Amino acid sequence: MSIDKLTIENDTDQVTLYGSLDITRDQAGLTHARHMKALLDRIVEVLEAKPLPAEAAPASAPKIVKNPFR
Length: 70
What we know:
alpha+beta, 3-stranded antiparallel sheet, 3 strands
């Protein structure tokens, strides 16, 4: 999903945010802030729903697949 120029990607073991988000002192800024707050509230809700390890397991090595164009 996106909020302005901020992209949010939900993976199975992490949420990644990248880009930028300007929260200006106007209706558009208020809307952006509310969307961001709702998103972060939901992320926290999901994280609090079950016990978490002290640290996430490291990502597995990328899987190498055969090139389909050769």
